[in-house]
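Good day; I would like, with your permission, to put a structural problem before you. A protein sequence and the structure tokens that stand for its backbone fold form the material at issue. The record follows directly beneath this note:
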Amino acid sequence: MEKRINHLLNQFQADTLNNAEKQELLELADAENELVSKEIIPMIMQEEQSAKQTRVEGNWENVLQNVLATDKPQKLKRRTLIPILRWAAAIIVLIAVSITVYIKSYNPTQKVHVFVQDVLPGGNKAILTLADGKKISLTDAVTGDIAKQSGLSITKAADGQLIYKVSEVVRDADDSKVNTISTPRGGQWQVRLPDGSVVWLNAESSLTYPLSFASAKQRIVQLTGEAYFEVTKDKLHPFIVRTAKQEVEVLGTHFNINCYADEDVTKTTLLEGSVRVFHNNTHDTEVLKPGEQSVLSNNGINVRNTDVEESIAWKNGYFMFDNEKQESIMRKLSRWYNVDVKYADASAKEVMYYGTVSRFGKVSQVLRKLEQTGEVRFDIKDNKIIVYKEDKKK
């Protein structure tokens, strides 16, 4: 996020901002934004100063004074400038709580697009496949015990989480018996594994894991799609996540893996702890530190610093797009809203977006935000989203 702020300030100073970027910067620099409370800012300031984590570069005070003095819409009056550290911290807070949408329109008079059809967002939906092949719809299962197998009880909590409880009888049980939890398009689920680790599954994903880790030297699970992991620490029994193209080994940590088959790369993002990423084909190995993301392709593994909030935005209930291509965004919408996507104009795939929007509104609400850039338009017909390049649509 800090990089984005620096980019906008540099572009403003060079007088190369387009209208949409100018509106975005004005909103960000509004010093009296009601979302930035007097209690939050001092706390963030203290943390930022002590840890020296603020990465906004350069002496921007004069630049920001110029931003705030720039002609702006009637509702944006000139404000007294807060110190640079407060301003940067305030922006970080806004992003963290995911309240403000940063996709801004460069055409305030643009008419609101009315969609004839609409699609509801996804929700808690999943299928549990037991070791004996029996399938249980977790969506329809009532709260409480839903199954017992080999000395384990499987309980659906009030919040929808799936919880395993292992009895003393199965402490030395055969760990070759596995369960699989699968989410459809338009579904998500949370499961607490037999070792206490918690996994959040995104739409169109699956996780296969043993009934018990008791007799295993390694806690091995198989993942397709995307999941966020909070792994219980156990130095004697490393936790292994296997996907089609990589293997991730951890002792106890928080991380996200995106390994959808229709994505060109597999991304592993580390929030806490340490993980080792192993490339199944090239045999490359990289160890990640918190705040880093490995991008695994056919050529090997590339490690980069990243905004971890973007990687786990789906888990926290929103979409976050950081200069992301339209084609990538539509794959996310397709999975979550269980819709197909058709491009009336192939060039629309290349349109870039930067912004944050809730995952729990109807799909039309998301599309309207994307339309505000003025570069694309959408239609919804028979559970299909049709994408047009704005200057070509008739």
Observations:
- The chain is about 20% helix and 35% strand.
- Residues 317-389 form a domain with the Phage tail protein beta-alpha-beta fold fold (CATH 3.55.50.30).
- The CA atoms of residues 9 and 15 lie 10 Å apart.
- The first strand starts at residue 123 and ends at 124.
